[in-house]
Amino acid sequence: MNLAKLTDRVKAILTTPKSEWPLLAAEPASVGSLYTGYIMILAALPVIAAFIKSSLIGYDLLGVTMRIPVMSGLAHAVASYLVSLLVVYVVALLIDALAPTFGGEKNPVQALKATAYAWTATWVAGVAIIIPWLGWLIVLAGVVYAIYLLYLGLPPTMKCPPERAGAYTAVSVILAIVLSWVLGMIIAAVVGSTMPGNAAFDGTHPIPQTGAVMTGSGVPGHVAAMAAPDPARFDVARTVIGG
User: Fold this and answer.
1) Number of neighbouring beta carbons within 10 Å of residue 26
2) What is the DSSP letter of 214?
3) Is 14 part of a structural domain of the chain?
4) Number of folded domains in the chain?
5) Is the pTM of this model over 0.85?
6) Is 6 a member of any domain?
7) What would the pLDDT profile of 102-131 be if each residue is shown by its tens digit?
8) Does some domain include residue 208?
């Protein structure tokens, strides 16, 4: 997918989702084409933004700028990106498995479409993390809108009755949140345990590294991040729906 076509697709799913979803559902696709032509590109946007914010710009707290060292930030970014790609696929499997329960038809490619295109809102909104304070409100708006996109997308992609799309969406989001937390904690333990214990405080002073990890982008992950009480957890477990 060329850049112009990708941009048009993102604009269409965000601005005219009701008319775009039937077109997406009918469009020929494969797991590989969805990843290489869409998911792998958009999933990188919030990861890059989070790296720039946490390691280059920093977070201002009480007049003091805190940054994660560049190498640690890069390690976080790589982990974040890889896990986000994995979680998109696993959530799609969950959506596919749930389809018969809500009167839909199992189809793994269509389930990946539902997950990936609904996730578009969080990937795009995730770039706003660079903006101080206001950025989190934009991220939250992206999370809410992604859930709405999934609600609109399940009937055309998974062939579920529209009246059951709400319950289908709710169960999918809840399971995705659980998955996000589990994977987020695993990556925090693995990556966090290998990090040097001296995150930069204006480049000179240490700050806590407890569980600091970026694990992708997506709805439940954003919810998990905003619920995390530790301010050192810059972008904790930003992974799944609600990608």
Assistant:
1) 10
2) B
3) no
4) 1
5) no
6) no
7) 999 999 999 999 999 999 999 999 999 898
8) yes
Classify residue 237: in a domain, yes or no: no
Please provide the size of the chain in residues.
243
Tokens for 46?
Answer: 């919030």
Task: Dig out the tokens for 52 from the structure.
Answer: 């720039």
Instruction: Write b or e for each residue in 69-108: b if 16 or more Cβ atoms lie within 10 A of its Cβ, otherwise e.
Output: beebbebbbebbbebbbebbbbbbebbbebbeebebeebe
User: Could you tell me the pLDDT band of residue 180, with boundaries at 50, 70 and 90?
Assistant: confident
What are the tokens at 160? 């579920």
Token pair, residue 43, equals 């999933």
Domain, as residue range, for 91: 33-227
Cα–Cα distances in angstroms (integers) from residue 76 to residues 28, 135, 211, 215, in the given order: 35, 20, 11, 7
CA count, 13 A, side-chain hemisphere, 37: 16
Which tokens go with 113?
Answer: 């479409």
Beta bridge mates, 66? 59, 201
- Return the SS3 of 201: strand
φ, ψ for residue 107 (rounded to 5)? -165, 105
